[in-house]
Amino acid sequence: MDQDTNSIQQKRSTELIIDDTDRKLLTALAEDSSQSYSDLGAKVHLSAPAVHERVKKMKTAGVITKSTINLDGTKIGRPFLAFIHVNYTGTKARDNFARLHEDADVEEIHSVAGDSCLLIKARCKDANGLDKLLIRMREFGDVTNTRSHIVLTTLLERGPQAELD
User: Are strands 80-88 and 118-124 parallel, antiparallel or unpaired?
Assistant: First the structure.
């Protein structure tokens, strides 16, 4: 009696449990994702191949979604940072705002609860650039109002932290 061994599969958990070593590794990667596996291993007391395997598993599980660099807005000609609160009516407005991902001035778009519908983080060349962005947004229609907050000084800007308290 032949049995098809290909049909026998072990069920594997797709959820990765993040331990303290993983959190330390994520913190080190968040500080500088260009570090070698050897350097990272020295920080978390693992071999380079062990670090590579952990990083690979975290990428597969979606814990690490991408590696990126941080740009200095002022040095690249976009020193004018603003947060824009947007209110709108209708069901199509949200889809229209999602198209703003194509606009180089727009860094983030969040649907929020509270006294606004959307919160948009924009980094422009100057106040005129922000004005042009606001005009483009109003062309979507159904915008009832916008409220912009201009950033004078950034005291802290970072992503989620891997370490738990």
Answer: antiparallel
pLDDT in tens, 27-63: 999 999 999 999 999 999 999 999 999 999 999 999 9
Are the CB atoms for 93 and 80 separated by under 8 Å?
Answer: no
Own/partner contacts of 155-162, CB < 8 Å, gap of 24 or more, are 158/30, 159/30, 161/27, 161/30, 162/18, 162/22, 162/23, 162/24, 162/26, 162/27, 162/30
Is residue 117 within 8 Å of residue 79, measured between CB atoms?
no
pTM: 0.78
What distances in angstroms separate CA 41 from CA 24, 28, 45, one per listed residue? 10, 10, 5
Strand-pairing partners, residue 122, are 82, 106
Task: Report CA-CA distances (Å) from 48 to 24, 39, 41, 110, 113.
Answer: 15, 8, 5, 38, 44
User: Going along 9-160, which residue ranges are E strands?
Assistant: 80-88, 106-111, 118-124, 143-150
Pair of tokens at residue 24 = 């330390």
